[in-house]
Amino acid sequence: MTSTNTNPLIRLEDVLRLQQMMQLKPPATLPLSFIGEDVKLIKEIRKKVKTANQNNVTRTQAYLDYYQKHPEIHWAFLAHLVSRNGGYYMTDLSTTLIKSLLSSEKQHAYFLFLEHSNSAIFHDAYAQLLLYEKSKEQNSNLFHLLSAFHISSFMKAVWNDFWQHRNKTLLSIALIVNEQYHIEKNVLFKKEFQRDVLHSWQFHTQNFLGMTQIVFPYYSGNKIDLSGTKVYHFESVLRRIEVGKTLYVLLFYSNLHDSIYTFSLKHPHTGSRSDYNSDIFTKNRNHSKKLYSPTLNMSWGDRVHLFLRKDEWFEDASIFSLLESIPASSVKKIPLQHHLKVQSAIKAANPFS
């Protein structure tokens, strides 16, 4: 699968057109009621979302499967790769190195934070993707059904615009904005995550040590290299959006797309960092010469999530300015030895670990 895009810019008229669509939307009314085939389809999509939202591994694979079928939906592949990294962070919590920084209670709190963020994004986005898939099958715009899944009014306008104009980049950036504001409103504002994770000294220590690196493994000849970026100030929604844009441009507007895609197909996600570097990492806890990196099912069991409410995050037109700027394409190669440097930094900070 080849990415043929050459210009990542979104035209101002595309953004203005979206703004006009939002201004023309009808005033809020009573919740819509659905009948007949609509009800059947809504139930079908909800069932598929729930099945695929079992854990980080199932979510990550679902994104990749979807992208294989619908390569015009760039965001699905970006989500697959970011979700891979979410799995790495989850299993990192079970390693000896991280245990030297975090108590068992903190490990559990961090896992729940990662898992709930990962699953909340999937719960919101995958329903949208499946509705687009069904619209393609029927060759009919079905986005009026987005209301059944409590999708933001912002994304309703975006999907309707995409159905008509097919601007892949605009859709991708809009999904990045939507999902970050979605978890900002529905996950990160929760008091337990603010207290136990975002405001903890361990969270800021991980930032300082460079442990919040998002990596995109790719083939360079017969060997695997890494590209990606560091994530600083995760608590800032605007910073997370900029990171998402940077990763999107790296994935679709550099020459790495095909090599990253090949890696993703050849190496099913397990959560272990040995998926991309078996010279440094191992799934074997007793291996003395490599860093232990377990699979997800070796580290954490599945969690049942109750998405009882999804608050509307879209409030004013200032959000549209986030669609107007995209970073320039640049490939940032990450040395495979980065993890060894992190290990040394942790040991230096914890000499008795």
Structural summary, described in words:
This is DUF2515 family protein. The chain is mainly alpha-helical. It has 14 helices and 5 strands. Strands 1-2-5 form a 3-stranded antiparallel sheet. Strands 3-4 form a two-stranded parallel ribbon. The radius of gyration is 20 Å and the shape is globular. The chain starts with 11 loop residues before the first helix and ends with a helix. The relative contact order is 0.16. Residues 348-353 have low confidence and may be disordered.
- Individual helix count: 14
- Let me know the largest β-sheet: 3 strands, antiparallel
Order of helices and strands: HHHHHHHHHHEEHHEEHEH
Q: How far apart are the termini?
A: 46 Å
Q: What structural category do the secondary elements indicate?
A: mainly alpha
Output the radius of gyration.
Answer: 20 Å
Described by the principal axes of the CA atoms, the overall outline is globular
User: What integer is the average pLDDT?
Assistant: 86
Q: Estimate the helix proportion, in percent.
A: 40-55%
Question: How many domains, in number, for the residues?
Answer: 1
Strand coverage percent: 5-15%
Give, in spatial order, the strands making up the sheet with the most strands: 1-2-5
InterPro entries: DUF2515 (IPR019658)
Protein name: DUF2515 family protein
Pfam families: DUF2515
